[in-house]
Amino acid sequence: METVVDIVGNAEAKVEDSVAARNKPTLTSLQKIADPVVYQLVRVDRNGRLVPATEDEVMAVEDLLEDDKSENGFVSDSVQTVECNTNFKHDLDGLQFQASSGLPRDNVKLDAEAPNASPIPVADFEKVNVQPKQSVSLLTPTAEYVGIFQLEGSPKPSNGLVENETATSAIGTSSKPDFSVLKGEIHLDNLTVKELQETFKATFGRETSVKDKQWLKRRILMGLTNSCDFSTTTLVIKDNGVVKKDKEEIYNSVEHNILLDPEVGSMSVNHESSPTFHDNQKESHSNATGMELQGYPTVDNYGSEDTNTEQRATKRVRKPTKRYIEELSEGESRDSCAKLISSVGHRAYSQPSTDIHVTPVQKVGLDGRWLIRRDSLGGSGVQVPYVSRVRRSRPRENFMTLMPVTSSDKLYTERKVELEELKNLDSNENSDEDSVTMPAANGRMRRKHHRPWTLSEVVKLVEGVAKYGAGRWSEIKRLAFASYSYRTSVDLKDKWRNLLRASFAQLPAEKGMQNSRKHTSIPIPAPILLRVRELAEVQAQVPPSFSASRFAGHTEYHLGQLKAKIAKLRTQLLEPPKGSSGAGEGFEVTKFGHGRVALIGFPSVGKSTLLTMLTGTHSEAASYEFTTLTCIPGIIHYNDTKIQLLDLPGIIEGASEGKGRGRQVIAVSKSSDIVLMVLDASKSEGHRQILTRELEAVGLRLNKRPPQIYFRKKKTGGISFNSTLPLTHVDEKLCYQILHEYKIHNAEVLFREDATVDDLIDVIEGNRKYMKCIYVYNKIDVVGIDDVDRLARQPNSIVISCNLRLNLDRLLAKMWEEMGLVRIYTKPQGQQPDFSDPVVLSAGRGGCTVEDFCNHIHRSLVKDVKYVLVWGTSARHYPQHCGLSHGLQDEDVVQIVKKKEREDGGRGRFKSHSNAPARISDREKKAPLKT
Ligand SMILES: Nc1nc2c(ncn2[C@@H]2O[C@H](COP(=O)(O)OP(=O)(O)OP(=O)(O)O)[C@@H](O)[C@H]2O)c(=O)[nH]1
Ligand SMILES: [Mg+2]
Predict the structure, then answer these.
(1) Ligand of minimum distance to the alpha carbon of 652
(2) Closest ligand relative to 612 C-alpha
(3) Per-residue DSSP letter, 801
(4) Where does the protein end up (predicted)?
(5) Does any ligand 1 atom lie closer than 6 A to the CB of residue 603?
(6) For ligand 1, what atom is nearest to the CA of residue 804?
(7) Which of 468-477, 597-606, 787-796 has the lowest mean pLDDT?
């Protein structure tokens, strides 16, 4: 099989270029040319017909391209400034092959030097007889397709072939030796071992130490047979050599080349400045000088055999994946630009009078299937399209390797800029094109299995939502995305969600373009995002978790993470070390009464004095600090209830960290029902904040209710984040980060209120205590009335004076109110209620329902309760028959009606009056009758 790359040219361009090339066959002629040439990869079958190369072949060629480019360290401007407007003039009589092309200056120089400098003349060779209608075939630009047969100018007339040292040196040190420039026929039988080795080196690109002539000849012939395209030459391989063929054969072979299948891909060819065609440079027919190289037939030698042969073979037999086939087929049906190239190729081949067709390809696609490279040369870029097939087998190593890298930084920068443009050119005009591969930041190809959305698609989606409404994805898909078979309604839904995120996360101060996702192919313009936002707001689609624009930044996330970290570490700090017996000596006293109240405050604020005043229990009070060093309990008799009041040592700043036994003090206060924070009215206002902070540091939450956040850990299923209302402090990402900090990866979170990050952390920690706190400002006798008035108006505050016994009753009332004790009086059946000894319930101590009331009396009472009769504020009428779930209120009177024992046997007419066993077998057998 021979694989060739055929050139499709533009006839008009050809004429112009040929004229230009003749008049000014230099670089300037090239610069005037803007139209690119489409190269298509074809294959010559056994009948000599050119058939389109298969995908595997294209893939293999691309591999070779890549490999060669990566192997070849040679970098030259001329490599990338490919001249594709080559004008060929083939004389039927032959004998003349004119190649005029606007090669770069380097090429001109090298090509001009080559005939003179080349010491490799071999043998006389007939001038090539080529049909003018033919499409000149080029071999694929790989290292295997190198070599040229020269006809004349050889100072060394022999049958061997010699490497063109000048040319080799001209192109620099190559990693692979190039195939020698041959002249005339080659008869391997006549070559010496050394010459055979040279030939082998030229053919395969590597040296060999084998001296076996037969082996060398066989390998060389095999290499030539497999790799060289002799169809465009007058050479054939015959009898251990490359020999001339008849004119008829040449004519036939050329005729075969004209028959082309239009369905071929395009391929870029890099023309090298060197006359020795090296690796991926195999252009043999271009000459910038426009001079005639008479008798120089272009035989692109396929000096094959490289180390990748086996790999390529493996690739060819590998079955393409289903996805690859699907995408390729979709792409082929969709790619209008690809069709353009194909059709151009078809036209070019079908035009009888042209041999080169320069195709003005203007569209640029990045779908991985075709790509037009625009290399900058001077002011006018030359566009070189080539096939860039999607290869699902492995990602293309480097996008840039397909584009020859110039040594000039400027050109390199330009190319990068162009690449960026290409990336961003996913525009309206290319709406049907989708990127499958994208160049990543490190220059390697990053493959995306999904098709990135184009701007036109996004606009269509937004229009569809505006027209049909969000949620009607199937309808939008059917009506607006009918031609986009690869877009499902789920895709539309997902994209709309991402657009919503992007639009609500976008800060107004940000620059106009913002991506909804990090790796999206196109940035969404600000107007579209604004439109999305408008639509979402109109259709009440504001996602709760994205309604806060403040989350566009990372500061909140970072702060949230830090808060979670601090809370976690603080919890670890407060936990007693494992293995220890726990805390040391504490202040804990036995619980007594119906409620417990702790006195917390700085030293010498009057706590002990207050205890003495309220309870009658003496507690040492003095004018120096830390008079009290332990917990002193007292009992307050109030409203037929007993309330335990605890006098505690004074705490100072840093108590939560253990200063002044502050931790034990706070631990006792944690066990109480409410906290009385005693403050000195004559002291700084900051004391209140300090104490609040200290208590909160150990998990006490004063005058707060638990956050309305439902949180439940799960074993599997990930994190489900939901909210019943728009959130302004927490979003999904922040919630995930905080949970991640606690190493929670499976949980259910439901926000029922606009909670803060601290609330979420409290819920996750789960050990917070929410308590009522009354701020008691003592010693108001020493401050002005204005200050007293101001303090008294603060929430949860009360002003007192222990010395003057001012406002103590209000303090007790407030305390009672905050404690929420519920007194229930019992009423025996047929008797008066007992108002002397109530049953005291509270929400903090087991609840206030009838069942709690029964349990408070005795645990076994609940199952005997038939119903209860309730008098009081909780009853709608007196008495009300209530069940166990009825909620009781303060000073209710309850009468319990128990079930009767005889009712156990049934009710009404179903009642069982007999005590006989239910089953006959259980009955006692009567004694048999005596006869
Ligand atoms: N002017 C005035 N002084 C008071 C009042 N209540 C208490 N004091 C004085 O404040 C000083 C401290 O009183 P204590 O009851 O020992 O204060 P404490 O908070 O128990 O102090 P520690 O036990 O050290 O924490 C005493 O000298 C009291 O006489 C008040 O209402 N007015
Ligand atoms: Mg005291």
Answers:
(1) 1
(2) 1
(3) B
(4) Nucleus
(5) yes
(6) 31
(7) 468-477
626 Cα nearest atom in ligand 1? 24
Kindly list the distances between the CA atom of residue 449 and the CA atoms of 3, 438, 588, 914, in Å, as whole numbers in the listed order. 31, 11, 65, 81
910 band by pLDDT with thresholds 50, 70 and 90: low
**How far, in Å, CA of 779 to CA of 788, rounded?**
10
- Give backbone dihedrals phi and psi of 248, rounded to 5 degrees, phi first: -65, -40
CATH number of domain containing 508: 1.10.246.220
Partners of 201 in beta bridges: none
Other beta carbons less than 10 A from residue 481's beta carbon: 20
Dump the DSSP string for 847-883. Answer: BSBHHHHHHHH-GGGGGGEEEEEEESTT-SSSSEEE-
Does residue 717 form part of some domain?
A: yes
581 Cα to the center of ligand 2, angstroms: 29
Q: Whose CA is nearest to atom 27 of ligand 1?
A: 623
What's the number of domains the chain is made of? 6
| Residue 187: closest CA among 143, 243, 228, 133 | 243
Distance from C-alpha of 807 to C-alpha of 3, rounded to nearest angstrom: 105
Q: Is 500 part of any domain? A: yes
pLDDT in tens, 676-732: 999 999 988 888 998 898 888 888 899 999 999 999 999 888 888 888 888 888 888
Shared domain check, 641 and 790: yes
**Same domain (yes/no): 479, 604:** no
The ipTM estimated for the assembled molecules is 0.98
Residue length of the chain: 931
Place of tokens 């078979």: 485
* Mean pLDDT to the nearest integer, 51-59: 67
Residue 362's CB is within 10 A of a number of other CB atoms, namely: 13
User: Same structural domain for residues 136 and 204?
Assistant: yes
> What is the DSSP-derived secondary structure letter of residue 641?
E
For residues 336 and 730, give the distance between their C-alpha atoms in angstroms, rounded to a whole number. 47
206 and 244 in a single domain? The answer is: yes
